């Protein structure tokens, strides 16, 4: 009888609590945002410097804060008709954070979409007139820094719009073709390129970009080029067979191997490595620079599809820090067979040399030692789960380049 009374009391208590909850939810004020069409009133800096100030214009690749009302529920934010990136979970009803696309093909934008921000929500849309300008150009690299005069190359970068002048290897270029999206400029290597090369520059109506380093410079910072700086010690074979890999100047190395089991790291076998004698990577006086000031470069040519295995690069046979290059692997992890049309330049930032935990060296001294000098070891390993029947990769002009 006692247990029965306790059970009845428990049921009554639960009923009272349930009623109280429903009573409170029924009286709760509706704080959900308005479902009217969105309204934009201002555009602000995303980074609060100086003082989260209002903006009078914006450029590509820029984070911004859109101020207004009814901004929740965003489905699309378009800048000059090009979709921007955003996460509506970050938004409030009065502010939204968005990333303007890095590439807007300004010359091809329809006139009715120029200088507009279109904001589309699940409860309406609006178009806000606001200056979106092409920023100053930036240069990220050149497709092949060792191409012969007359060969086609590309200057890669961003915002190559409304071009006023182009300089390649220190020589003014009058004939060139920019891509529609402003990310490259195609041209023929001019006659008269010297052994030490020269800078690359692109000037547009918005500004000018100039490379710190010289292209076609195979003297400064060169660790091995198989020709006038032949620092090769042992490993892969060398060849000047222009029929196999045409377009090269002189000798080059060939990484080559076959019948490599999955997970095989025996890089010293079958000509699967390029090993040099000691060389100065970075001048002793420059070891206080940061890693971001330097990159490793070399040219490669791949005529047979490359779909597995990696080039691993270390200094002095030490795997404390190593960089890995596998261009067949996409950002999503899928595989796309990699080949080249002739030779192309590979650029590996020093920050890509990481330890077993994936962290880069804190300083140049940590990466290169107290003298900034030593051998370089470019090796091929099968770090995948599939058997590799054969591979062949030509390599030349191994060099360290200061980019800042």
Backbone structural class: mainly beta
Unreliable residue runs: 1-33
Give the N-to-C terminal Cα separation: 87 Å
Any guess at the CATH architecture of the largest domain? Sandwich
Task: Please report the number of helical segments.
Answer: 2
* CATH fold-level name of the largest domain: Jelly Rolls
Backbone shape: globular
Based on CA atoms alone, the radius of gyration comes out at 29 Å
What fraction of residues sit in β-strands?
35-45%
Average pLDDT for all residues: 89
For the report, how would you describe the main beta sheet? 6 strands, antiparallel
Topology:
Elements: H1 2-27, E1 39-45, E2 58-59, E3 63-69, E4 74-79, E5 82-83, E6 85-86, E7 95-99, E8 116-121, E9 124-129, E10 132-133, E11 138-142, E12 152-158, E13 163-168, E14 171-173, E15 177-178, E16 184-188, E17 201-204, E18 207-210, E19 222-224, E20 232-235, E21 237-239, E22 252-260, E23 273-276, E24 279-280, E25 294-301, E26 310-315, E27 318-325, E28 344-349, H2 364-368, E29 373-374, E30 376-381, E31 388-402
Parallel strand pairs: 2-10
Antiparallel strand pairs: 1-3, 3-7, 4-5, 4-8, 6-7, 8-9, 11-12, 12-16, 13-14, 13-17, 15-16, 17-18, 19-31, 20-23, 21-22, 22-31, 23-30, 24-29, 25-28, 25-31, 26-27, 26-30
Could you walk me through the main structural features you see in this protein, from its secondary elements to its overall organization?
With about 400 residues, the protein is mostly beta strands. About 10% of the residues lie in helices and about 40% in strands. The protein contains 2 helices and 31 strands. Strands 19, 21, 22, 25, 28 and 31 form a 6-stranded antiparallel beta sheet that branches. It has a 5-stranded antiparallel beta sheet with strand order 20-23-30-26-27, with no helix packed on it. It has a 4-stranded antiparallel beta sheet with strand order 1-3-7-6, with no helix packed on it.
């Amino acid at each position: 009888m006692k247990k029965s009374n306790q059970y009845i009391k428990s049921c009554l208590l639960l009923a009272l609590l349930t009623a109280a909850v429903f009573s409170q939810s029924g009286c709760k004020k509706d704080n959900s945002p308005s479902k009217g069409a969105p309204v934009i009133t201002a555009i602000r800096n995303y980074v609060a410097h100086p003082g989260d100030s209002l903006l009078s214009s914006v450029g590509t690749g820029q984070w911004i804060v859109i101020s207004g009302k009814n901004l929740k529920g965003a489905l699309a934010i378009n800048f000059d008709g090009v979709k921007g990136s955003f996460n509506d979970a970050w938004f409030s009803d009065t502010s939204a954070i968005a990333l303007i696309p890095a590439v807007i093909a300004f010359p091809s934008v329809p006139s009715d979409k120029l200088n507009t921000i279109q904001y589309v929500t699940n409860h309406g849309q609006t178009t806000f007139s606001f200056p979106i300008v092409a920023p100053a150009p930036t240069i990220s690299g050149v497709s092949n820094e060792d191409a012969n005069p007359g060969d086609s190359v590309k200057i890669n970068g961003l915002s190559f719009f409304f071009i006023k002048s182009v300089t390649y290897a220190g020589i003014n270029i009058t004939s060139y073709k920019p891509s529609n999206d402003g990310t490259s400029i195609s041209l023929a290597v001019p006659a008269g390129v010297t052994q030490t090369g020269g800078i690359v520059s692109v000037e547009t109506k918005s500004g000018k970009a100039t490379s710190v380093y010289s292209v076609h410079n195979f003297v400064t910072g060169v660790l091995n080029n198989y020709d006038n700086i032949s620092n090769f010690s042992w490993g892969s074979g060398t060849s000047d067979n222009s029929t196999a890999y045409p377009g090269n100047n002189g000798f080059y190395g060939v990484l080559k191997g076959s019948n490599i089991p999955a997970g095989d790291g025996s890089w010293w076998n079958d000509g699967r490595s390029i090993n040099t004698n000691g060389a100065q990577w970075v001048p002793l006086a420059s070891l206080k620079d940061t890693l971001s000031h330097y990159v490793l470069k070399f040219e490669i040519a791949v005529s047979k599809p490359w779909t597995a295995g990696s080039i691993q690069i270390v200094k002095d046979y030490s795997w404390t820090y190593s960089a890995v290059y596998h261009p067949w692997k996409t950002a999503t992890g899928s595989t796309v067979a990699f080949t080249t049309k002739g030779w192309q330049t590979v650029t590996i930032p020093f920050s890509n040399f990481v330890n077993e935990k994936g962290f880069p060296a804190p300083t140049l001294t940590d990466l290169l030692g107290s003298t900034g000098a030593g051998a370089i070891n470019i090796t091929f390993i099968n770090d995948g789960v599939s058997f590799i029947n054969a591979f062949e990769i030509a390599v030349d002009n191994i060099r360290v380049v200061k980019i800042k």
